[in-house]
Each structure stands twice: as structure tokens, then as C-alpha cells.
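Service request form, structural biology core

Requester: graduate student, group of Dr. S.
Request type: structure prediction, single chain
Budget code: on file
Notes: please return the result as C-alpha cells.

Sequence provided:
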Amino acid sequence: MKKIFFLLAGILLAVLMIVAYILVDDNQEITNQDSANPYEVASDVQLPMNAFLDNIPEEYAALKEPLAGAFGMREKAISQELGNQNVQIGFRKITYRYPSTDVKGNPITLSSAAFWLGYFADGVWSNLSPENICLMEHYTITSDAETPSNAFALEMFMTGNTLTIMPDYIGYGATKELPHPYLNHDVCAINSIDALTAGYALFSDSVASGMSQDWKLYLAGASQGAANAIAVHKHMDTNPELAAKWNFTSSNCSSGPYSPVVTIDKYLTDGKVTYPVVFPLVMKTMFDSYPEIMNGFTEDMAYSQNYLAFKAEIDSMIAGKEHNTAAINQVFMEKVRKTVDANLADNEIYLVDILSPEMLNKESALCKALYLCLEKNDLTKGWTPVHPMKLHYSPLDAVVPQENSLAIQEAFGSDVVKLEQSSTPADHATTCSLWMVDLFSKGF
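Core staff response, request fulfilled:
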């Protein structure tokens, strides 16, 4: 994986050398809140880019050198234009709270982050005028420390000179105490559009010069974020006036569960998974979001007696929002996994160790009810895309099977859906990482 990143480093630097920059000497305070787009600022920081680069997670360490070189090119261009050698490229990140609706349609206050580039000249901050807007949807997390408002998500730095909006989602940030509606695509889409609206209002109040002329909106995300981005895409294309208002152009996503039906069906067919935390996340959402369908069933009915012995521990880890997905998956591997044979890899677990016989039987009433819930969030049905989407995927992805991307193109055709297979077929995490590098080097 590291070799792949270093091979692409030269491409990243070459691209940044030809990027045009619009400089603004603009340090306007946030003093005016548009009552039509209310928001509340939680934090506002301006930091040199090195503050981020020095804290890149170990698993992405290979990205540090190309990123440093790329942002160094930006810094050099700004320095030359200003005729000032004491320039540091940086970023401004504002976290904010905004109104939206929950899974029941009731009012709720959520949190999000807005991010754009700027620079310090002789220690004084100035904003760059973003060329476009990117609504970037984050991947699956289970730790609140990983939320965009609490962390510096790597995706933030892959979008070039943009106003990047990254919602926390329900269940994180301002609503940490609530369950996250995992794969409830409609709710996540509405929450994200509300974050976009409030984030743009916040930006407009923060930077007097505003956006560059002819800006456009792009949607992006990897893994769960990819599905959320396409859910927003659906909302835009089924509401043309909204798409026009936001100058919506296209989506660029990687490895998303666009069809929860296809995803769970593939898991049940294979009989084993590498990412078992998905089951409690999905089950909790479907019982919470669709009680009229799941009425008569309990969550415990979906699980094996073997899993029920550890369910309270796993539920506590999910509810506490202090453990990441790797830690929760490790509990599955160390405690829940009982059936082991020569056909099982070290990072796999058989579904018989997790799910009840009724849940494993597609003809059972419980399994059919679950599928009805999943079908409500199937992004391959119920609409016709107008704007193009580019979907990156890998045939070796066991977490989000390639069948998701193939199903989108089969449903809507190759004219609007461009599939892009990973240059190096790899696992889920590596595929998403390669997509981020590709997004950074080639743009939307």
C-alpha cells in the first residue's frame, strides 16, 4: 500500500503546480446570522497545515510526504504573488450546530464542520476564496472522537481549494447520546443538506469575498459516506429546484453500500463477514426507524445464543461512542467467533456465530421484515439520476461487496454512472484510501 502512495506522489505535486489561486485579504468576523439559515458556532480555528500533517494517523503515514509537497506548492505560489517570504499555508475549520430533523421527523440540533484553506502572512490570517463546494460524507465510525467536528478527517484535505462541509450525523457530536441511524439513507440525506445550508450561511458570514465565480457543488464520500452522498444525490435529482440552487454537478464516491439489500444478501449468501459490527448497527437502526415493520419482533430474536452472551458488552461499546470499529470487531473475533475451520480467514467470522437460525433463513418472517426495511434505503430504486456519478470500487472488497456499484450501473446505465475499478484491487480500507489519493490528484 505504501508503494502505491509513493508512486502517486509525483502526480499529486504536478497537479498542484498548475492550480490557480484567488487570494483574499479578508479577516471578517462572524457577526451576522441569517435567520432563514440559523447556525451556532461551536469553535473557530485557523491552523498551519503542518499542524495537521504532523498528526496524520500511522495507517496513512505514506500520504504525509505527497501532501506536504502539494501544500508546499500552494504556499510557494501565494508567497510569490504576495512578494512575502513569511507565508504559511493553513486551513480554517469552524464547527457549528444547526437545525434538522430526526428519524421520527421531529426537530433536532446537529453538529457539523466547515473547512476551507487560507494562509498566514507575517502571522496574520487571510482566507482563500474557495473555487467550489464539496459536501463530504464521512465513513462509518463508532467513536465520537472520530467525528468531523472533533477530528481532522483526512478527506477534508483531499478536495482542493473548496468549501468542504462534513456533517457529524445523528448520534455523534452534538447528539452523541442518541443512536446513529446507520444506513437510513433518507434521514442522513436530509441532515446533510441541512448541514450544507447552514454551513454555506456560516461561510458567507465569515468571508466577505465569498466563493469564486462560477462555483459548483460536488458530493463525495467513501464507504458509508459514499452511500450517504448518493442519497443526497438522489434528493437533489428528485428536487430539481434544489439542484439548481446549489449548482449541483456530480458525485464522486468509493465503495458504498448503495443497496443495503444487496449487501446483506451477499453476507447471508457467503455465510461469513470481515466487518461484523455492521449487524448490530443495522439491526438497531431498522428497529428504531421502522417500528411499524419490525413490530412483533425483538432485536434479540435476530441473534444466536452465542452472540447474546456478549451482546450487552457490544451494545455498551456502541452506545458509549468511545470505541472505534476495529475495537468492536476485535470483540467479535476474540469472544463471539466459535466456529473455526480451514475455510475461515483470521479476519472472518461465520454468521452462524452471530445470527439466529430465523435471521439466517430468508423465508422467515423476521428476515423478510428486515429486508422490507432495507428496501426503503435501496438507492438503486425509486428514482432516475440526472447528474453523473463516478463510483470507485474493488472486486476484492469484502466489507462492501462490488455488487453494490454494479447494481447502481445496472439500474441507471453507463451514461450517468461511470464505474472505476481500483487500479490495484485491494481490501475495503485500501480501496477507499486509493480513492482519496485519486480525488486529490485528479479532482472531481
